[in-house]
Amino acid sequence: MVMEYRLLGRTGEKIAAIGLGTWLIGGGSSPDYSMDMEAIEAIRYAIELGMTHIDTAEMYGGGHAEELVGEAIKSFKRDEIFIASKVWHTNLRYDDVLRACERSLRRIQTSYMDLYYIHWPSDVIPLSETMKAMERLYKDGKIRYIGLSNFSPTQIEEARSYLSTTDVVAIQAEYSLYNRKIEGDVIPYCFRNNLTVVAYSPLARGALLADLRKPMERRVKLLMELAEKYSKTPVQIALNWVIWHDQVIAIPKALQRQHLEENAGAAGWKLTKEDYDLISKTW
User: Fold this and answer.
1) Is the pTM of this model over 0.70?
2) Contact 68, 39 (CB under 8 A)
3) Most CB within 10 Å of its CB: which of 157, 163, 169, 238?
4) What is the pLDDT of residues 149-177, one digit of tens each?
C-alpha cells in the first residue's frame, strides 16, 4: 500500500491525499477518556500507513482530541507529520484567536501548526479582525498555512482580501457521494484559484456503510460492481471518487485498523473518467 501525496494549494508542499479526521475521537464537545489508548494507537497506525495529514480542532472533545494527537505524534519526527487544527467560531476576536492557537499548540505539544483553520465563520465578529490575527500567527511562525472551513466563495474571497503577506491555501467542507452541494460553488472557486479542497465526512458519517446492506439498490450495486472491477472495496471506490480531482483530498475518521487500512487503500490509484462520470450520474 503506497500513499499518494498531492500539492497543497500553490505552496509547493505535498500532503497525503487521504488523511485522518479526529471528530468524535476523544469525545464529542466534551472530553471522553475511555478510549485514549485505542485512539493514540489508531492515530499512530494511520501515520504508519502514510496518512500523515492529521486534522483536529480545539472543540473536538473539548480539546482532548488535540491532546491525543499530541501523544500519538511523539513517536515520529515532527516534520514528517502535517497537523491541521481549527479555532472555534466563538474565539474569533483578535486576542482570542491568538490565545486559542497557543492553547492548541500546548495540547498538541508542538511549537507550530502546519495548517490552521477558522472552523466556522462568525455572524458577529468581523472577518477582517479574525484574518488579521491569523496573519499575525503566520508572521510569528505559529502556523505555516491558513485555511477556512465551512465558508462560501463570497466569504473566502473576503477573507483572502484581508491578507497581505500570505494567502489562504485550503478550504475544508463536507463532501461525499451523499452531500455534493459544494460542487455548485466552492469546488469551482477553489479550482479557479488553486486552493485545495479538504473533504470532511467523505463517507457521510457511516451512511455509506449502512447503504451497503442494500446491495440491490441501483447506486449501491454500481459501487459493488466497480469494487469488483478494480479489486477494491465499495468504500474505497466512494473515497477515490471524492479525491478524483487532484485538488481534492479527504480526511475520513476511523479507529479500527481494518478501516484505517481500507481508507488508506483508497489512494494511489484512480477511477477512469468514464467510471467517475458514471458514479457522478448515478448518485
Assistant:
1) yes
2) yes
3) 238
4) 999 999 999 999 999 999 999 999 999 99
- Give the torsion through C-alpha atoms of 56, 57, 59, 60, to 10 deg: 0
Q: What is the CATH number of domain 5-206+239-269?
A: 3.20.20.100
Residue positions annotated with a catalytic role: 60
Three-state SS at 178 = coil
Q: Is 142 helix (H, G, I), strand (E, B) or coil?
A: coil
Summarize pLDDT for 189-245 with one digit per residue, the tens. 999 999 999 999 999 999 999 999 988 899 999 999 999 999 999 999 999 999 999
CA dist., res. 274 & res. 225, Å (int): 14
Take residue 240 and report the three cell numbers written for it: 477515490
Q: Which residues fall within 8 angstroms of residue 9, CB to CB, at 6 or more apart?
A: 145, 167, 168, 169, 170, 194, 195, 196
Using alpha carbons, list the distances in angstroms from residue 241 to 189, 238, 258, 281, 283: 19, 5, 20, 12, 11
- Other CB atoms within a 10 A radius of the CB of residue 199 amount to 25
Nearest to 147 by CA among 79, 86, 188: 86
CA dist 101 and 111 (Å) reads 10
Give the gyration radius of the chain's Cα atoms.
18
18 Cβ neighbours under 8 A, 6+ residues apart: 3, 4, 51, 239, 243, 249, 250, 251, 252, 263, 264, 266, 267
E strand or H helix at 229, and its extent?
Answer: helix 218-230
The residues facing 250 across adjacent strands are 18, 199
Please state the domain extents for the chain.
5-206+239-269
